[in-house]
Fold PRD domain-containing protein.
Amino acid sequence: MKIIKVFNNNVALTKDLNSIEMVVMGKGLAFQKKVGDEIDEEKVQKMFVSPSENFAAKLSELLNEIPYEIMSLSKDIIELAEKELRTELNDSLYLSLSDHIHFAITRIKNDIPIKNALMWEVKKFYKAEYQVARLALGLIKERTGVELPEDEVASIALHIFNARQDHTGMEETVTMTNIVKDVTNIVKYHYGIDFNEESVNYSRFITHLRYFAYRMLRGEINDDQNDALYNQVKRQYGEAYKCTIKVADYLEKEYSMKMTKDELAYFMIHIHRVSIREKRMK
């Protein structure tokens, strides 16, 4: 594995025998190394394929500002997240998370706290990521001595959730979260109920809503118009139909998105399920 660019003493861009470019990280692995030198692979702590020249340039820029210790900390948090969530996360998280943690620590040291307006929504809708992010805050305190506020749990959870999607941007993730929040409130106030957030039906509803919002923002909504299913569900769940129309009106007004009959039918089913149990409990 030969070096084709040295970013700093701890990070380099390399090329393997198959001419695949990879970014490698490790304490001192590029110290006093130059282009063409071989990397001591025993020192490599993390390696990932460089997806583009843009990525390498962005990494180079960040490494001029972010200490290697923060990059290493991010690596450990990501490995913890992958273990807890039993999934692989997008390599771009190494950049975004390192940048975020470094900036958050700097703000706290300068007494400039920043509130996360979506903290309660993230806590409710992305529970698994939120729990991992809470562990991350403990690791950050242990390694840096800096105790970040709880708002940062939500921020880190959003970064983790974002990395679980297929190249979703953070702006898109925030928009998805707002859609989930707004639609949930429409259902809540239409029926005059409070949700049992531990129930299976609530979990199914939120999962459907999250992935609907994800597909909607990417223009991947199913174009099928299943009149038979739509008419049957509309007749059977009249109140859920009225609520679903409110949701459809909101989405069309705010996002210029017109729901298909298939989507309307599935929304009616999920809204009926999540509301009927709460009404019975009430």
In short: The radius of gyration is 23 Å. Residues 68-164 form a domain with the PTS-regulatory domain, PRD fold (CATH 1.10.1790.10).
